[in-house]
Amino acid sequence: MRTFLDQPMRRADFLKLGLAAAGALFLRPGSRWEGTRLAEAAEGTVPQGGGMPETIKVYSVEKMGLVATAKVVKTDAEWKKLLDPEQYRVTRKKGTERPFTGKYANTNEKGVYRCVCCGNDLFLSDTKYDSGTGWPSFYAPVSEENIRKEADHGLFTTRTEVLCRRCDAHLGHVFPDGPKPTGLRYCMNSAALLFAGMERAAGESTATFHVA
């Protein structure tokens, strides 16, 4: 018997179907993100030299579509204040955590993985899989609009770096050895992510998030 992933379906159609299903469940965001020190990263953004922050569009799981939001720009000192040492090393200095040590290496709860620096939606739990590498691995982001990619020429080789589009946090790298339907492996650092689990009360059709 062929599994759902083996059925003939275009990659774009598959991702749209998954996002629609997730959006139906994630209609009401939990309040535990608001008021935390990490939520402060998304507030009070002032570009260097003054002026208004750049506005971009990213996909919102809650809104089930693209939303306009401000780019998050902080000084190095501000990031150090908001993040713990490992989060800062990974996201702002392009570090890599040791394999099999990250908080989310083996999680399988339902929810969404957000950027630890700005709260941008990055990956759905439904796209997470066990790659055997020791890092959280996903076969697709929430949307290509929510990330950006750059060539990384470090470590005597060229890799594709993945960054948060909203705050430019280093997240990890993407490799062309993942499962269907995309064939990609987004190899992420747990320190760059903040997981918001899904809670649904009995008889409720909507769900709330809680930050793990």
Overview of this structure, please?
With 212 residues, this protein is α+β, with helices and mostly antiparallel strands. It has a single domain, classed as Metal Binding Protein, Guanine Nucleotide Exchange Factor, Chain A (Beta Complex), CATH 2.170.150. The chain is built from three helices and twelve strands; from the N terminus they run αββααββββββββββ. The chain has a six-stranded antiparallel β-sheet with strand order 5-6-10-9-8-7. A four-stranded antiparallel β-sheet has the order 4-3-11-12, covered by helices on one side. Strands 1-2 form a two-stranded antiparallel ribbon. The longest helix is centred in the first third of the chain and has 15 residues, at 11-25. The protein starts with 10 loop residues before the first helix and ends with a strand.
Strand-residue proportion:
25-35%
Q: If helices are DSSP runs of H or I spanning 4 or more residues, what is the number of helices?
A: 3
CATH class division: Mainly Beta
What is the arithmetic mean of pLDDT?
81
Structural class based on helices, strands and sheet pairing: alpha+beta
Main sheet strand line-up: 5-6-10-9-8-7
Give the CA-based shape.
globular
